[in-house]
Amino acid sequence: MSALDLVFQAVLGFAATFGFAVLFNVPRGALLPAALIGVLGHLLRYSLRQWGASNEVGTFCGALAVGLVGFWYARRAQKPRLLFTVTGIISMVPGIPAYETVVYFSKDDILNGLQSGVRAVLVAGAIAAGLGTARILTETEWTKH
Fold this sequence. Notes:
By secondary structure, this protein is an all-alpha fold. The chain has helices at 3-23, 28-50, 55-77, 82-88, 95-106, 110-138. It has one domain. The chain is built from 6 helices and no strands. The relative contact order is 0.15.
């Protein structure tokens, strides 16, 4: 993993997050922070994958980082947390395995379809677990009851 690889991945993560943030109607003042939070999560996931971690572990850690930093920045900027967390995880969404599942099933290749489907569900679960863990760690309201 070279510095050029990291810069390239940062540009890709920025473009994906920024583009989705525009589609998600994030206010102009929050577009750059949302994109940078997405870059952080994407680079963490990419780096962990390059160092040998599984896709699910890398995705969990990336989503956790997005959740924690997104919560921190949302508090600081007094904006909704979802502006930063939803847009920040978009580069981690398992679109290719989900698409492959549909293609394999349409070709009656059940085994490969199931493998792709399980991969997609595990990555989606890792995103949910990462964001959920960040919420549990940052929200203190639930401990008051």
